Amino acid sequence: MKRRAFLRAAAASFAASSIAAPAVAQSTPELKWRLTASWPKSLDTLYGMCEDFAKNVADSTDNKFQIQVFAAGEIVPGLQVLDAVQNGTVEMGSTAGYYYWGKDPSFAFTTAIPFGLNARQQDAWQLRGGGMELLDGLFADFGCYGLPMGNTGTQMGGWFRKEINTLDDLNGLKFRIGGFAGNVIKRLGVVPQQIAPGDLYPALEKGTIDAVEWIGPYDDEKLGFSKIAKYYYYPGWWEGGANGHLLINRSKWQSLGKTYQTIVTTSAREAGLRTTAKYDLVNPTAMKRLITAGTQLRAFPPPIMEASFKAANETYIELAKANARFKRILDSIMAFRQDSYSWWQVAELSFDLFQVKMLGRS
Amino acid sequence: MKRRAFLRAAAASFAASSIAAPAVAQSTPELKWRLTASWPKSLDTLYGMCEDFAKNVADSTDNKFQIQVFAAGEIVPGLQVLDAVQNGTVEMGSTAGYYYWGKDPSFAFTTAIPFGLNARQQDAWQLRGGGMELLDGLFADFGCYGLPMGNTGTQMGGWFRKEINTLDDLNGLKFRIGGFAGNVIKRLGVVPQQIAPGDLYPALEKGTIDAVEWIGPYDDEKLGFSKIAKYYYYPGWWEGGANGHLLINRSKWQSLGKTYQTIVTTSAREAGLRTTAKYDLVNPTAMKRLITAGTQLRAFPPPIMEASFKAANETYIELAKANARFKRILDSIMAFRQDSYSWWQVAELSFDLFQVKMLGRS
């Protein structure tokens, strides 16, 4: 037998023996994967979500599929999760897609856009309204498969050392604000700042920045902003519901097979659902503690909200002109938003408003 | 060897061989279970949830754990799911726990109580706030293990042939309304009626009943109520978020082992999350169709809402006096509700209200 023929025969034999192997061995191999998170361990709600997810997968597979979770900075910095998954440094990551809007502004849609959707609407659009299919092409272009995992709910508007009463008060204001929203709010004269979480407190204390937005009462309380900024504004109109993603290296995802793909999907959904539930449990009591300690709650004045809404729309129009994918996803999400709120205001909103009215009396 | 000693030795040998069997065979046996649903197939959102759940389990186990889904009436009637699971007729069921409030009023807490929690709050209370632990004793007393699965969101208040302007308009009104809520609304003079879904339309058409509440626009539209009752009221204050349960026969649940227990849990959570997402997708467009066809939307007038709130509280006080478990769960849910809404009104509600204001202008 010539060498080439032998190799062909060996390959055929290998293929045949692969096919003959027991189905169970093919569908559930022993795997050890690594997950890198954008979250430090101190962000226990989001970091805990990754651990819950990994435990779900391990428990569903009799520990055959083990995923080790690494906090931000242990393997790569928190804002390089997409890159690490794309280039195969790790098999998977937990992150917020909008961190990467500089690569393509369409990444903003994966997490939240200013005046976009609330948490349930983001789920509905992604899981049932064609959103995941639209976002899949984006993730694919970056070598990833993306599964929604975790939503914080509507975030707070941040901590301000001085009251914001008019649009003039925003002019020149140095404000730490997450990526894409900075692109909108700078139209109002704000100077958006990108600062790593560990540097936020000293920056605000020294006056390097005038204000900082982070997440909500529970996570914000731990960073101690209330000690140096008295006014806590709401709502975080740029994050009506910030949705995280589990990113999986796309060829690794395709190698998994249906059994593990299903287990990863249901495990991520379960961990994500319990994360929103955790925020909804711990934010109310954190807010009570903050108010007791002297924090002053303030709503953004309507003229500021309305100017921001206008600035967001202007930003969208510009980006849609320059980027066909951005336009395609924007059109989908905006049509969904219009329909959804026309229904939301009927049953959901009137129920919640009545509850607030009655419970506020007691 | 005497006969009794032989049996002991055989038993010991059997036990030893069980222990020696491969771990994989113990944790993932071949199983075929049956699930009976409270939902007819025409209620495609809720029935579809059961099929999604069964598919998740099959796909997670390489089809080793197969669950066959039966619609209401195929094995037992829709309101006898708890009994069928308890007595082992089937291994599992999909139902709304409040159907069984006649057995113990605490069952109301598993689904929704009048002026209780919205969908996200119900998740937070159950999954993170100790709710599942409190409800577990109730399910255990009825031979079941209960997993939350699916939430409709805030339901509509129902279809009325005449406008409801004052409390007097409720007096003597024959209203089809789900179990526990009937117990509250009868304090306002309403005569609550229990009628099977298939009989609702003719009952309303013939005037046997004056009004009917069912679920929301998508499900209601299919039953055709809009053709005979013009006024569609909101909100369904007795169901701020109606939460379903997957019930599993408790000894069957305990026999599953950790691997299958985890798979059943994550599969139910995934199917449940996608059910709320489905409702949030299809309700808006159904509402648009109904309004186009002539349906008149009406909010329950504030005096009726306030009288209903008072009637609910009176009901709770009476039941709590008579039933220690009801009191224990009520105390937990009411404390959670107070805290939760004090936070909900800040970020979530102000975001949603602003969105509705701006989108209503376009």
Mean pLDDT of chain A, as a whole number?
93
Main β-sheet description of chain A: 6 strands, mixed
CATH class of the domain at 3-152 and 241-281 in chain A: Alpha Beta
Most extensive contact: A-B, 83 and 83 residues
Structural summary, described in words:
- The structure is a homodimer of 362-residue chains.
- Chain A has 362 residues and is α/β, with parallel strands linked by helices.
- Chain A has a domain at 3-152 and 241-281: Bacterial extracellular solute-binding protein, family 7 (D-Maltodextrin-Binding Protein, domain 2, 3-Layer(aba) Sandwich), CATH 3.40.190.
- In chain A, 52% of the residues lie in helices and 14% in strands.
- Chain A has helices at residues 3-20, 23-27, 44-60, 81-86, 108-111, 119-127, 131-141, 179-185, 197-206, 217-223, 250-255, 258-292, 302-322, 324-344, 347-359, and strands at 31-37, 65-70, 92-95, 144-151, 158-160, 174-176, 191-193, 211-212, 231-234, 243-249, 296-299.
- The radius of gyration of chain A is 23 Å and the shape is globular.
- At the A-B interface, helix 2, helix 3, helix 6, helix 12 and helix 13 of A face helix 2, helix 3, helix 6, helix 12 and helix 13 of B.
